[in-house]
Amino acid sequence: MAHILLKELRKSYAGQEVIHGVSMDIADGEFVVIVGPSGCGKSTLLRMVAGLEGITAGTIEIGGRVVNDLEPRDRDIAMVFQNYALYPHMSVRENMAYGLKISKMPKPEIEQRVARAATMLELEPYLDRKPRALSGGQRQRVAMGRALVREPSALLLDEPLSNLDAKLRVQMRLQIKDMHLRTGQTTLYVTHDQVEAMTLADRLIVMNKGIAEQIATPSEVYRTPASEFVAGFIGSPAMNIFTIRAEAGTAILPGGHRLAIAGIPASGEVRLGLRPEDLEVTDADTASIPIDLRSVEHLGADAFGYGVIVGSDILLTLRLPGTSTAQRGDRLNVAPFPGRLHLFSIETGKRI
């Protein structure tokens, strides 16, 4: 196991900076997920830690050692890629043992480590099969087993589940979490999938254009997003975010509707964020937002309503009970739960 310390990491290509001073202290045994949209720099950051990408500035420490100039093989890490990259002519056992064999580890020790990893990943029945005889999920487990047998200080995973179907992704998420609880391995995990990020992480690094917008627990990121970007990226359906005007401490919404919001500036424009699940339908005409429903999606236990704020073209999404009888054309008054509103600066995008 290893403590990982990132200090002001920067990466530039042809003079263009793509990673902008990322710093984080990752505790021994912590599971940290780097999440963000395509092109945000999350895989680049992971590859910098692995030694597969050089760094332009900053420091990487793994297990108390500065590893800036060390080759990947000397960093005591193992990496699992999106592409399983298994040897097709080798059995599962041989694929998992290959790296240890190349390092000339004694055969009894190799067999012991392979057996231990196979048990943990439930691969014992498949040890003598070739990769072509395995499902996608089984191949992914073999790739993880090949990394685990090395017993590295840190495990790095780059979009390991993106090639799997939805059901297998759920199963593999559970197995990855269970594996981490058993091994206590310091883990860095990259994904664009916010569900994977929220369910797996002890802490998240939310990346946007090479900047770590927020580093916090999943609960903190969800409840108190540090910026409008984080608020819009984390949560499904996405948070409703639109511009309002503050007037004498009261919010003037699109369509001219008024809403009392604690902590709003005395005047000026700000961005208001409302999560669909933090809105409730109310009978009150005052202290609420009237919307005209455009459509309703029924998903069993829940339903989602999509409507425009009366007098405007702002679309609002709200979660409804699955038993709701609301339908297109209905006018609803909705009100946010107290303390569940989010305000962001128009100029900086940061949380107010």
What are the main properties of this structure?
single chain; 352 residues; alpha+beta; 6-stranded mixed sheet; 5-stranded antiparallel sheet; 8 helices
What is the element layout, followed by pairings?
Elements: E1 4-13, E2 16-26, E3 31-35, H1 42-50, E4 57-62, E5 65-66, E6 77-80, H2 92-102, H3 107-120, H4 136-148, E7 154-158, H5 166-183, E8 186-191, H6 194-200, E9 203-208, E10 211-216, H7 218-223, H8 228-233, E11 240-247, E12 250-252, E13 258-260, E14 267-274, E15 279-282, E16 289-298, E17 302-309, E18 315-321, E19 331-336, E20 341-344
Parallel strand pairs: 3-8, 3-9, 6-7, 7-8
Antiparallel strand pairs: 1-2, 1-4, 4-5, 9-10, 11-12, 11-14, 12-13, 14-20, 15-19, 16-17, 16-19, 17-18
Helix pairs in contact: 2-3, 2-4
